[in-house]
Protein 1
Amino acid sequence: MPRGRYSLHDPHDHTPLAEEHFHCAPGPSGWRYVAQLTTPAGDHSGSVDLALDELGRPIRLELHAGGWQVRGAALDGVTWVRTDPAGAHATEGNVPAHAFTGTSPAFLVATTRLLRLTPSGSATRVRLVRFTDPVLAPRTVDQSWALLKREAHATDNGPLTVDEYQVTALDTGEQHSVHIAGDVVLAAPGIELEDLESPPSVFA
């Protein structure tokens, strides 16, 4: 069960945003990721709880940030309920999309589990609902993902397989790279892996 810590920063000006203390593991039904977020000053600022089924679909999502809460799942596309900090209003949303995304590295791993790409030059299009910080506002985004290469790197614990993905935002054409080993994000815009207590899980 990998445990560790990511630092999250603004990908444009590198302003520190948060630290995400996580643990994750594959299980009989899929994969689960749980994390607590703290501000750069060390105050608690939110949480992430994401569970996928064996096909990579989100069977449960719970996000907390700035007093806001989102609960969601794959149902008739994706469906969610967003609750305000006072708890007085809850709004339900539904979009014909494949999965969710957001600032947490968990969503990058989840997208790769859903797409199951093999190394090639061809890209696969995916529609996602992104919950934006700090109020978890939903926004539908279209991306294309391509697995550029898969390389094995020698480590003290044996070979570590690292996948390099190219992600394109279809509304702007902006591209960036994401490096993932198993269920751990090694590098991505705005994300740095600061600490890892045990090796990434190896998916079958």
Protein 2
Amino acid sequence: MDKPTLYIANKNYSSWSFRPWMALTGVGIDFEEVLIPFDDAAGNPNIKAVSPTGRVPLLKHGALKIWESLPIIEYAAELYPDAGLLPGDRAERALARSVSMEMLSSFRALRSACPMNIRRPKAKIALPDGVDADISRIETIWRDLLQQSGGPFLFGAFSGADAMFAPVVNRFDIYDLVSRNDTLAYMETMKAHPAWRKWEEATRAEPWIVPEDEV
């Protein structure tokens, strides 16, 4: 089987890149990584040369190109059915897809006010309307799933659903947004995962600064 190639952007800021990278790395899927920084306000032409949308992440497998984080994870789950990217139980797979899609399509107030920034020192900011509601809904998702599965991850073992929420873990952490013990425990579990630590280490070596994401 040909090894897929995952195109990503700056690890410190690119939440969309973080999700599929964390998913594939977290379950041990072997892939080539190509990082194209978004270091140009108009968009890096090297990204546009690779991706039909002009954005990353993008997974290339042979002649096939797949964009957007969730379809990448879904494709990898079909390509590597024994890797554990999706729960084994049909009902749990449906639930994992539901919460992953909600993460993809919702929580705009949180994402706008609190950009992902792995290197940012922890500090609170003034929060606009809507952020508290987003936080509450995400905590409810996590709490319900962890109670059902018994943890330590949302569906017991690490899966693509955890990877979809990885950027939120960073946001909750660096903007000091949460205090519930169960939320904090799940965040620590995620941050202790070897894939998370590998990504975080790589951010420390990146030279790029994106001012609009330095809240």
Protein 3
Amino acid sequence: MRKIIICTFLSLDGVMQAPGGPDEDAESGFEHGGWQKPVSDDEVGAAIAGWYEPSDAMLLGRKTYEIFAAYWPTADPGNPFTERMNSMRKYVASRTLTSLEWENSTLLEGDVADAVRELKASDGGDINVVGSGDLAQTLMRNDLVDEYRLTIHPVIIGTGKRLFADGAVPTSLEPVSVSTTKSGTVVGTYRPTGKPSYDSY
């Protein structure tokens, strides 16, 4: 069984929108694009590279797919991520796209949750869900997430899309590995373990 792994960069207050650049995603008037780099460091980069070692595919929503497809095919070939991102299999969940130009990309058909269940049951390595906030919400609601790999950066954004937004399914998480980089970024891997328990002091 393949694992579905949500790989996401978060601010301290949980914002995941547009970490990579000012023009990445300005939906809803978001004005803080590009917030990650100033609070990142080489340890974060090494951790992110490690996220891709056991994975041979990405699962992307439309918006993240279009951002990646516009960048990676012409990205610097000296960047070690360039070849990796272009050669990996990409599965794309979209209700509006009818064709995909980026190499090794496949458009999922039918119900997204059903299609992802089929992917999980197929042969292959782990599948990383990168960005793709709306898709992540769908996967969480349908109990399809096997692991979260998160970088939590020391910055408060205040507005924007959040991975764990209002209405998120209450879930208990087991920490697999958690460390802090020299810039103060928390790099954590967590696995869902079912519903949380409740008690009092």
